[in-house]
Amino acid sequence: MNNPFEALEKRLSSIETLLIDIKQKPLQKENTDPLLDFLEKEKAMEVLGVSHTTLWRWEKAGKLVSRGIGSKRYYSRSEIMSVLEPNK
């Protein structure tokens, strides 16, 4: 009959190897929620550092496009970031 401690040592070694592999590979979280790509109006104003009126003017001028769901307005995160980038 095999030594039970050898079997236990073998299992612990394989668990240790798996834990090391998990620790070395960062978790990659997929963006599955499309709403994460959009900011509500208040958050967009905060990120851009502008007032409601300025946001409205930029939308009217075509600098930003909003999308509405119900009574809420949402702005694309990528469009907001492009407004924040200096002109090239």
Mind explaining what this structure looks like?
There is one protein chain. The chain is an alpha+beta fold. It has a domain at 34-84. It is built from 4 helices and 3 strands; from the N terminus they run αβααββα. A 3-stranded antiparallel beta sheet has the order 1-3-2. A hairpin with a 2-residue loop joins β2 and β3 (72-76). The relative contact order is 0.12.
Low-confidence stretches: none
- The tally of strands reads 3
**How many alpha or pi helices?**
4
Helices and strands, in N-to-C order? HEHHEEH
What is the radius of gyration computed over CA atoms, rounded to a whole number of angstroms?
A: 26 Å
Oligomeric description of these chains: single chain
* Strands side by side in the biggest sheet: 1-3-2
| Sheet having the most strands | 3 strands, antiparallel
Share of helical residues: 40-55%
What overall geometry do the principal axes of the alpha carbons give? rod-shaped
- Average pLDDT taken over every residue: 83
Strand content: 5-15%
**N-to-C CA distance:** 76 Å
Structural class: alpha+beta
